[in-house]
Amino acid sequence: MSDAPDRRRPLWVDLTILGLCAVVFVTLIALGNWQVRRLAWKVDLIEAVETRAFGQPVAPPEGPVTADEHAYLRVMVAGVFDHAASADVKAVTELGPGFWRMTPLRADDGRTIWINRGFVPAEREQPVITAPDAPVTLTGLVRISEPGGTALERNRPDSGRWVSRDVAALSDWAQIDAAPFFIDADHQGAADAWPRGGLTKLAFRNSHLSYAITWYAMAALLLAGVSYAIYDRRRGSRPRLNDPKIVDIASRRRY
Question: pLDDT band at residue 1, thresholds of 50, 70 and 90?
Answer without folding.
Answer: very low
